[in-house]
Amino acid sequence: MYTRLESSIEHSLRKWVLEQGLRFVKIQGQGNRGNPDRAVCFPRSQRILFMELKKDTGKLSKLQEYVIGRMREEGYAVAVCYTVEEGKDAVQQRLDEGW
User: Fold this and answer.
1) Quick one: which of 32, 43, 62, 99 has the most CB atoms within 10 Å?
2) Which residues have CB under 8 Å from 57's CB, separation 6+?
3) pLDDT by residue for the chain (99 residues), tens digit each?
4) In the chain, how many domains are there?
């Protein structure tokens, strides 16, 4: 079975997101533990989709599960994606919704 590295998923998804006229931002820095590490910015609607990318054999840490759950409860859009296609689908869904 072929396992894509997280960096490979990020590279392919980033390219596609930029082709859609959106921004793909890597969130870094101290105090970021548990938070999604990427954001897709939709300029027309000024909305943000937070994304956590994992390789297909990866899994969320307990802290990530907690933080992402809280973010969703607070109304933030958060997608956890294990493949490029899942990432594209999450973005396309928002575009179809008028984001």
Assistant:
1) 99
2) 3
3) 455 678 889 999 999 999 999 999 998 766 778 999 999 999 999 999 999 999 888 899 999 999 999 999 999 999 999 999 999 999 999 999 999
4) 1
Q: Which residues of 17-38 are buried (b: 16+ CB within 10 A; e: fewer)?
A: beeeebebbeeeeeeeebbbbb
23 belongs to a structural domain: yes
Q: Looking at residue 86, which CATH number applies to its domain?
A: 3.40.1350.10
**Buried b vs exposed e over 42-59: b needs ≥16 C-beta within 10 Å?**
beeeeebbbbbbbeeeee
Q: Which residues contact 25 (CB under 8 A, 6 or more apart)?
A: 38, 39, 40, 41
CB atoms within 10 A of CB 7: 10
Give the domain range for residue 20. Answer: 6-96
